[in-house]
Amino acid sequence: MKEAGRIALPNSPDHIVYTLENKPVVPLEHTLVFPDKKEFAISWRNNFARMEQIAELVRKAEIVQEEGTYNVPLDNPKIPYCMGLVLSDLHIGSYNTDYPLIKSLIDTVRETPNSFLIDDGDTFDNGIFMGLQFEQILSPGMQAFTAEDLMREVGDKWAATTLGNHTEWLFNAAGQKPEQIFAKGIKGPIFAGMGLLHLNAGKQKYDIAMAHNYWGKSKINIFNTCVRLRENEYPRADMYVVGHEHIWGHMKEASDGREVLYIRPGTAKTQDRYARVHGIAKRGQKCGIAVIFGTEDRTFEAHPVADAVELMQLRKTISEL
């Protein structure tokens, strides 16, 4: 028996007729019946509906962002500049890391007027794969605490963090998202792998594209990854930062009639057995590049850290005259 908008199941009495609504009925074989127990129907549509609800809840609970804004704290507004210290690949917790270097950089940020810090990933080593566990001098939990406490001390001068592959191993191994650690310690945005930081510096605004890693790696042209990041992800940013390879350098070029700045921030993991064994490099190049941004006029220039600090201190002296 079959009528318009109705269906009769095979082998069923003719008087048992089911009305079709806007979606197909659950097939009879998908109705599970257990003796003396309840029966329920399952289908891919019902499963999709539930998964959509849960996925939406998970997305709303995410801490990481694709874009975020940071307002530079100008503790000396008479100085028409601010200094952003760009760091990456600190690898806290490995015995191959240069801890006096990290301490010096953190103290520089804390003591230099109008300064802030940008972290481009692999903040702690978390070496739980590929034999790296034998390099660890702190457990992953203590590494995370150390990084968190360091962020607490830097305070609102910590502008943003991009999560790297080493910190992401927390999620790969145990399902713990590393952004939950960083969210406790910094007020700026946290990016999962890459993101766009909108920097408000006095009267000026700058866009900084950050990626811990990106394709286009070249030992001949170390800035090729930055160029690809500009071309494929963030075509209108002012500055492009790519870490991961433990390479140090900065370069400016003209693009579409404007200046753009490329930065490879280096690393604090200057002695790296993995890099030597795999023919990557004899040693990592020390991290730390300082960018001086104009707060009145739109200017941005990269410098070695010591040179930038000297310039900022000179500006401070002039402002006090």
* CATH top-level class of the largest domain: Alpha Beta
Helical percentage: 25-40%
Task: Compute the average pLDDT.
Answer: 88
Unreliable spans are 1-5
CATH architectural group of the largest domain: 4-Layer Sandwich
Total helices: the number is 8
Q: Kindly give the count of domains.
A: 2
CATH topology value of the largest domain: Purple Acid Phosphatase, chain A, domain 2
Helix/sheet category: alpha/beta
User: Would you count the extended β strands for me?
Assistant: 15
Main sheet properties: 11 strands, mixed
What proportion strand?
25-35%
Going by CATH, the homologous superfamily of the largest domain would be Metallo-dependent phosphatases
Between the first and last Cα atoms, what is the distance in angstroms? 99 Å
Order of helices and strands: EEEEHEEHEHEHHEEHEEEHEEH
Radius of gyration: 27 Å
3D shape: globular
Short description:
This protein is an alpha/beta fold and 321 residues long. The protein has helices at residues 44-60, 99-111, 140-154, 165-174, 179-185, 224-232, 273-277, 305-319, and strands spanning 6-7, 18-19, 31-33, 39-41, 65-71, 81-87, 115-119, 158-162, 190-201, 204-211, 239-242, 248-255, 258-265, 289-294, 300-304.
